[in-house]
Amino acid sequence: MELDELRQMTASDLQVKEREAREEIFRLRLKLRTNQLDNHAGYRRARRELALIMTLLGEKSRGVTVTKKKKAS
């Protein structure tokens, strides 16, 4: 998912996405350990998505608002 899409979600929606990401990581880790996983990049992507979701949940719980940084030219 894109960062902008995740930022627009509510905290309860993010908690649902967190649970789904954790379940996906579990399934991918099981396949990885049993040598059934063909694409290892999917496991890494799922872990990064979970980290992003958890970061956004932390920001929302603390009431932090993050603005986009402008690129320096």
Short recap of the structure:
With 73 residues, the protein is mainly α.
Report on this structure.
The protein is elongated and about 40 Å long. The chain starts with a helix and ends in an 11-residue tail after the last helix. It has 73 residues and is an all-alpha fold. It has a single domain, classed as Helix Hairpins, CATH 1.10.287. The longest helix is centred in the N-terminal third of the chain and has 23 residues, at 11-33. The protein has helices spanning 3-8, 11-33, 40-62. Helix 2 runs antiparallel to helix 3.
Terminal CA distance: 28 Å
- Into which percent range does the helicity of residues fall? over 70%
Put simply, the count of helices is: 3
Rg from alpha-carbon coordinates: 15 Å
Overall number of strands = 0
Strand content: under 5%
Backbone shape? elongated
Structural class: mainly alpha
Mean pLDDT reading: 89
Largest sheet: none
Number of domains: 1
Order of helices and strands: HHH
Highest-level CATH class: Mainly Alpha
Architecture, according to CATH? Orthogonal Bundle
CATH third-tier fold name: Helix Hairpins
Protein traits:
single chain, 0% strand, mainly alpha
Secondary structure blueprint with pairings:
Elements: H1 3-8, H2 11-33, H3 40-62
Helix pairs in contact: 2-3
